[in-house]
């Protein structure tokens, strides 16, 4: 039988692993969106794509619901990421 402190440490170690996975996944995602930003800049495409953003929000809200995660949180999370991606795209565009 384990103690509550042992259980807490085990759970926290798993959380730490998940945090690392999230950060590495975000880094890979941003590498891809940087490539998208270069492609958009080279082809005079706007940094933002509201139609795609809307589709992605709908998709992630659905996935969140299926996964037991609050869809509103999923939308806020995506909006945060998209804002950062657009900022990167605008920076790429201005340096081209």
From TrEMBL:
Residues 2-93 form the Chorismate mutase domain. InterPro entries: Chorismate_II_sf, Chorismate_mutase-related, CM_bact, CM_dom_sf, CM_II_prokaryot. PROSITE patterns: CHORISMATE_MUT_2 (PS51168). GO terms for biological process: chorismate metabolic process; salicylic acid biosynthetic process. One of its GO terms (molecular function) is chorismate mutase activity. Its EC number is 5.4.99.5. Keywords: Isomerase. The keyword Isomerase applies. SUPFAM superfamilies: Chorismate mutase II. SMART domains: CM_2. NCBIfam families: CM_mono_cladeE, PRK09239.1. This is chorismate mutase. It comes from Henriciella algicola.
